[in-house]
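Problem statement: downstream parser choked on a complex file, so we are re-checking the raw output for the protoporphyrin IX containing FE run. The parser issue turned out to be on our end (a line-ending mismatch), but while we're here, posting the original submission so the record is complete.
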Amino acid sequence: MKTSSISPIQRVLIRRSFRKVARHPDLVAELLYNRLFEIAPACKMLFACDMQQQGRKFIQFLAISVVSLDTPEILIRAIQELGQRHSRYAITMADYQQVGEALRYALEQTLSEDWTPELNQAWTAFCDFIAQTAVMPIN
Ligand code: HEM
């Protein structure tokens, strides 16, 4: 798995857009999980927790990932460890992709007219990278 699947321009777009949405972490997380439970209702039962706290953890993880876009070893390690912590839920690639889809929906809603096809492509590349790395076993 290589971060080269996310181009340098896409990294800039991801960083810039994340800076804007990071001002509203609770809103983004709420939009994300509401959307996820709409498109993948079966996921809901996995979350026996305080969803506001969970949302903050998710956005915090995303913040660390965005900051680490130019340091692949750190980014890959962090995502693999996240994947390992999620392994007890028997999550598949398709589940990760649905989270990616829900995240892009939340970003689009938050950024409104600032959400562009280029941003959508950049975040799709990033979400796919997270999904593929998370399901990869740690060696
Ligand atoms: C982009 C992909 C994902 C990210 C960034 C992410 C992030 C996180 C984070 C940061 C936590 C807090 C605990 C920890 O750090 O391990 C967490 C917990 C959790 N995640 Fe994810 N996650 C992702 C995908 C998924 C998927 C696909 C599912 C299932 C459909 C899922 C289900 C859960 C559950 C059930 C918890 C524990 C909630 C509790 O405390 O009971 N996650 N996730």
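For whoever reads this later: The mean pLDDT is 95.
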